């Protein structure tokens, strides 16, 4: 989902779809060149944490790409 203008709100939706309710294990997620920012990173991380329950099935996320997403040092604390 590169260059789709995904921002804080978009990250809320992505985080929600990563929840166990959807039963969609994500193995790779590329969000390069989106204005995610620190708030978006916080929301995205919530979903990624929920998605990690799929580790039981060996299907948790293995690659996350966030190049040029307006992230700063504060954003790192959510990872």
How many beta-strand runs?
A: 2
Report the portion of residues in β strands: 5-15%
Structural class: mainly alpha
The quaternary organization reads as single chain
User: Which sheet architecture does the biggest sheet show?
Assistant: 2 strands, parallel
Order of strands across the widest beta sheet?
A: 1-2
Mean of the pLDDT scores?
Answer: 84
What does this structure look like?
The structure is a single chain. By secondary structure, the protein is mainly α. 37% of the residues lie in helices and 8% in strands. The chain has helices spanning 8-17, 37-51, 73-76, and strands at 28-30, 63-65. Strands 1-2 form a two-stranded parallel ribbon. Helix 1 runs parallel beside helix 2. It is globular, with a radius of gyration of 12 Å. The two termini are 19 Å apart. The model has no long low-confidence stretch (mean pLDDT 84).
